[in-house]
Amino acid sequence: MAFVDLLEQQIASLDDTSFAKLRDWFFEFDQERWDKQLEDDSNAGKLALLINEAFAEHQAGKTRDL
Question: Is 44 helix (H, G, I), strand (E, B) or coil?
Answer without folding.
Answer: coil
